[in-house]
What does this fold into?
Amino acid sequence: MAVDEPRTERELRVMPWWLVLVGLLLSVALGWLVLALLLGEADRASQPDTRATLRIDAIRTGLTVVAGTGGGLALLLAARRQWITERAQRHQEIVAARDQAHRDRVQAHAETVAEAAQRHQDRQSTAAEHDAAERRLTELYTRAVELLGNDSAAVRLGGLHALERLGQDNPAQRPTIVAVLCAYLRMPAPDDEPRETEVRRSAQRVLTRHLRADDAAHWPEARLDLSGARLVDFDATGCTLVDADFTGAVFDGATSFAAATTRGPLRLGAAVLGDVVFDGLATDGGVVLDDARVAGRASFDGADLTGLSCRRSRFAGPTSFHRATFHEPSSFDASHFADGVRFRKATFLGGLSMEHTEFAGYAGFRAARFADMALFRWAVFAADVTFEQARFEGAATFGRARFEGAVRFDGARFSRPPLVDQARAAAGAEHSWPAGTTVERLDDEWLLLVDR
It folds into this structure.
């Protein structure tokens, strides 16, 4: 703690020797003066005996005055000596405090300088370690990428695992590593390398393995950009997909997005798929399947979809949306279902549009719920279609739709009469229309539905 600066003291003067001599002379002179006065008084006494006594008293009194004056001088000298001693002691204490304060300031300054030097040394050491780690990381990354570009499939497999290990040890590098793996899968596969398929399968597994929430080495922020890639037996079961882009991708073999979770949109526009499973898919962004081609079976059973855009898509195999939920408006406009499609107990909380959609096989909407508008205008049902026990809570429109097979609306409920103006139905099939529907025979083959 800092010591306050002491007040400036006056300079101490040395007492000259003659001052003491003058004091002694004054005391003697004072004693002599008193003695002379008293002796003069004693001499004026009339009786000789009395005169002698008075002279003795005068002498005693003079000596007493001299002694008292000398004692007073001695007392003053002793007091001055004590004052000087105390002042010297106080001065020593002040000087000692100043010296201690100076030593403390010097020590504090030395400690501050040492601490600053240590911090500088620590920063230099940390920077050196960081630079060394970055150089090592860059070397490992460069080496792994070089392995991935090797002509040998076995070496490329080693490069994949080197990149995976690099991502495990360095979380900050995971987005870059995922981008490299996606870029590798987007590149055309060489035609003269029979083992390339296994390399690409391994690259897919590296990506999807770390996208599963139950994986101990989960990479939560990885974003897949596999647009235009060719994927083989792609399995994203249970994965968390962040803004995943598969636009124009070709999926060979069986593909699975079962029980996956999406954050942001899942883009599959113009993709080509074989068998694909979306069972239990949960999304907080839309699913885009515009212009997609599904050559095999497609299943969305139990999917919880924010919204689905499936315009101009083609489904060659059986398709199922059993118990699927659509939270936002969804569209299947101009899509084609070559085999049966089932929406049994599906829930459309947003609007549904199936305008110009073609159903070449059975179309089942049994017990489906349409909470908003349902549009089936110009839809073509080439086989049987059922809306049994379906609930239409919004407007339902079947204007100019064509029903070539049997139509069943048994138990269906409408909040308002459906619009069926100019819809056609095959005359030879057995139909069950909503209550109040007006049916007129158009010719031998077709019935015409008109609004009242």
